[in-house]
Amino acid sequence: MTVSESPVGTFVTWDYVVFALLFVVSSGIGVFFAIKERNAVSSKDFLVGGRQMTCVPVALSLTASFMSAVTVLGAPADVYRFGASYILYAIAYTFVVVVTAELFVPVFYTSGITSTYEVIYRPVSFITAHTERTSTLGLTGFNLWGSIVATGIVCTFYCTLGGLKAVVWTDAFQMVVMVMGFLSVLIQGAQSVGGVEAMWSKAQTGGRLDVFDFDPNPLRRHTFWTLSIGGTFTWLGIYGVNQSVIQRCISCKTQTHARLALYLNLLGLVVILCCAVFCGLIMYAFYADCDPWSAGRVSAPDQLMPYFVMEILGEFPGLPGLFVACAFSGTLSTVAASINALATVTYEDFVKHCWANLSNTATTWTIKGVIFGIACTSMAVVASYMGGIVQAALSIHGMCGGPMLGMFSLGILFPCANSKGAIGGFIAGITVAFWAGIGAFIYPAPPFNSRPLPLITDGCPWLNSSITPATDAPFLTSLPPRPPLADSWYSLSYLYLSAVGFITTLSVGLLITSLTGFNKGNNVDPLLVRPVGNLFCFWSERGKQMCWGGAEAKPREQVRSERGSHEIAGLHS
Hints:
Layout: H1 13-36, H2 43-48, H3 55-66, H4 69-82, H5 89-111, H6 123-135, H7 144-192, H8 196-205, H9 224-239, H10 243-249, H11 255-286, H12 304-313, H13 319-354, H14 360-383, H15 389-413, H16 419-442, H17 447-450, H18 497-516, H19 532-536, H20 541-547, H21 556-572
Helix pairs in contact: 1-7, 1-13, 3-7, 3-10, 3-11, 3-13, 4-11, 4-13, 5-9, 5-11, 6-13, 6-14, 6-15, 7-11, 7-13, 7-14, 8-11, 9-15, 9-18, 12-13, 13-14, 15-16, 15-18, 16-18
């Protein structure tokens, strides 16, 4: 197949109808829960759903909120340009879900907190990272300004009216829309290229099926190691200590439901990942002889997927609208999660302590509607000027999430760490991560590290010769003048930015702690820690006490029992 000589079509009436239904149903869910829960006015009911959610809707919500337009549009384009090694993210997802379910969720759930940042009293960093995260959703290739405003208004509307329950159930609905959108592209796309066998053959010929590259060079963009190890640190910063994830998990009725929701979510993540990868392979098979980017039909790789959808589904009224609804479902889910999570952190860590007499209704409308609804929408406008959607989004996640993950891990795994170590480690981690990340934005890695695969225009009937963009040349003999760090430190794979921030935060934090004096274990809440000393020093009580700062390492069950006895005694006194 080749690019059509005439421009692809645009939306027709039925496409707009299908697309509009997404917003109508999403808003309707918010109205439903606003009416249903009108007597539940406490912040607990709004922010964590009264802790009565079950695992299935929470699992669907988690999957939808993190499989955003970055995945729907960016992942297929990445596979189109760099190959199917993107599928190795499944390994990272598995590690991330296991660590989150077995390490972080038990700590946050048993502590009874609402905001994860109550543990370390550092919510400002989360707000910065999460607002930036929302800002990466602006690149959708569909009526940018109108889409940004519509997304912001609808998300703010149903978040403010229905609280977390509305967010979770709207996410579940949007997850179904995402799968339907992907299936429409997969089925029609496979037919357009002559079937799955023909698609597979063209992808193999074009080098898109070379998945396993075990080169240990950390400067290579995607290898087995960068995707599995670097991807684990990147997504652990997004999942393990992220307010959006933890808030959904602690909304579950039991800790078992919370952990099960994460494992069911892993299945959803893998399904969406496979859909995105196969969409990328089908898109490459369709354009194997005539790349629309090189031919000038689209101005950026992230526009390839919308262009492809209009070309194969344009003759079916309503289906292009379904796919755009698929992309916006991820966007709506992520923006809604961000607004709700930002509101929770702000209320629990700021408002409740500064304006104790402010009513719940005033708090909800002010925080969600006025502040973060407008802020997230405005930041999305800024994101419309950013580059490649996948790498830009995950780079930001890594720069912000790695140091945050390091600080949480320092507090949870090392009770002996003190506040000076935590603050100093975090500052060092965020500094080093942003140094590498900003350097990479200014001085992009040379093509021999990123290694984009060849794109061909020989089959384009309106072109006389094959044209390949300069950015896709696999090896360049000369480069413009660059500083010494440009081809080493600044060329580090973007997936290692989180690991750099994590390791720096942990190392500097422990070093400062050792120089300024270990935290006394008596000041540590046993329910908020899972000391690494209990794992590696299980044979030595002295080793455990060193990790705990000299205090007795009591079992968590004993602490819960003692607390329960004190609470009962307090009720009878």
